[in-house]
Design brief:
single chain; 334 residues; alpha+beta; 6-stranded mixed beta sheet
Amino acid sequence: MYPEASPAQASAADQNLAEAVTTFVELRPRLFGIAYRVLGSATEAEDVVQEAWLRWQRTDRSAVVSPAAFLSSTTTRLAINVAQSARVRRETYIGPWLPEPIDTSIDPVAGAERAEALELALLLVLQKLAPIERAAYVLREAFEYGYAEIAAILRLTPVNARKIVSRARKHLTDDERDSVDVQEHRRLLDAFVAAAQEGDVASLEALLTPEAVSLSDGNGLRGAARVPVVGRARVANLSTASSRFWPTVEIAPVQANGRAGVLLHRDGRPTTFMTIAATRRGIHRVLWVFAPDKIATLVGHRTRGTLLPARFEDAVARELTREGNDSSYAACRG
């Protein structure tokens, strides 16, 4: 049972929560963008954003000077905690682990403000960093936070924040720093897919760098390579190894993580996502995602568009309808 509130108190509380929802919705793209880049998982990022909403809902918002700073700090710290536990879980993952691709042509929230640190290949490299290094790099490079702001969020000194970002940058290879533009990336992907469909190994080798790597994320799924395939010839041969693979799939272009990719369907069902990473020297990584849960995430982003996660809406609905305020909930949704 909830205590009876006067109409004035109920109206004020309703307005206060409605303002909290409005503020959170405005900042949600940035919050999701931070969490997704730190974690490489849209599912985990949405869990973090959901928890950030619950904390924002419970906090004394009248004492918060900057909602953006409060929510960014909360989200970053939550993402770091999840990243620390995720490292242990991923040790049991079967085969290469790749970040969850998301369709940024339909759901642009992950690419909010800037596209930096969003490509799958770069997200994969960032996963090799310690969570705090990863968060510092993301805040600086993707969202242009100042070193003093990063220091406050991560509870460091500005000098240490600068050193951590510099150290994170040094982990990036020349390939990650010098990727081709969006148009050239699309051209190379289209050429790779066309050559693979035709079984043209020579053309594939011409597109690949000598040290090219193919990574298949299937978490033990049959048919997905459980080890990285290294070298131009081996990657080209792998991409054409099964004469039954390409003729049995339908290819749909997608924009995943700000870059071109393809979603492969078999019997009308999406089963595989593929993209590349490339520099002016050629394609240096071929990335395949077979894991059903990650394909479901990609398809979910394509169908959900920019709608808020259902759990967030449900949480708002519970609060706004606690006193029977159905009309207020409808207004917030509108």
